[in-house]
Amino acid sequence: MKRYLxxxxxxxxxxxxxxxxxxGTSTPVEEVDADTIILDADQYVRFETTKGNxxxxxxxxxxxxRHNMVRLARKGYYDDQLFFGVQKGYKIQAGDVHSKNxxxxxxxxxxEKDDTIASEVNPWKFYHKRGAVGxxxxxxxxxxxxxxxxxxxxxxxxxxxxxxxxxxxxxxxxQAVKDSLTQPHAKDILTWQKxxxxxxxxxxxxxxxxxxxxIMKTRKAFTYSQEQTDFYGNIGGAPSLxxxxxxxxxxxxxxxxxxxxxxVPATGTNRxxxxxVKIIKAYxxxxxxxxxAK
Length: 294
What we know:
Elements: E1 29-32, E2 35-38, E3 43-49, E4 52-58, H1 63-75, E5 84-87, E6 91-94, E7 116-118, E8 132-135, E9 143-145, E10 149-152, H2 162-182, H3 186-194, H4 198-217, H5 226-234, E11 247-253, H6 255-262, E12 266-267, E13 272-273, E14 279-284
Antiparallel strand pairs: 1-2, 3-4, 3-14, 4-11, 5-6, 6-10, 7-9, 8-10, 8-11, 12-13
Helix pairs in contact: 2-4
């Protein structure tokens, strides 16, 4: 996975869903860079590529990431970009604006802007199943990038490995809680370190550990649901990414195209397909009707 892929400070307050009621009147909208995005609704973006087309459903429960992809698609940001980070049986990645018209030997998937999106990680509901769409990140457990996204093409998983991942996720939640408790004491810790007051640091650390443990006891530990376990075991995905990165959508049409991109041989540090696979155009589907489940 490329070095930017994925990470976010798991601040529980950021795990939220946007809910709006319009009282039967006009649909509420939000201004986003002079565009409007419907609130409290799934949205859909279609990607036309040189390998075929696929459609992504963006979840209403992750509005920051959903708004971001809609905004960029409307601006034509993804048009003419190349895929990279292509790994058969794992994932494909895109979102590097510098990949447009990149020379054959040019490494892509490296440079990014500094703008970010706050975490919307929610492994209880949105996990890295096959077809899941997530956002890359440069800072673990804090933010997503606003540009690069990935699509999971993972194969069937041995479900006996899932308890290990559950422990890893809960450990990260616990560390995030302790980090939030430590932050107000940052200046004191720096002063104590400067003057070698190890006993004060050790005492505070013990207190913070006790507080973190007490808080974690009031919260429900993460465990995979039976539905998630069955999906990983029977269809596939990448559970090692759960609890780390924001999943904000899924492929609902054209998964065979995503798979075809994943199967293209890739070279270089960031696994650029050879031959290149290009996004011809990405656009928002207005008034889209999702296909009926088979």
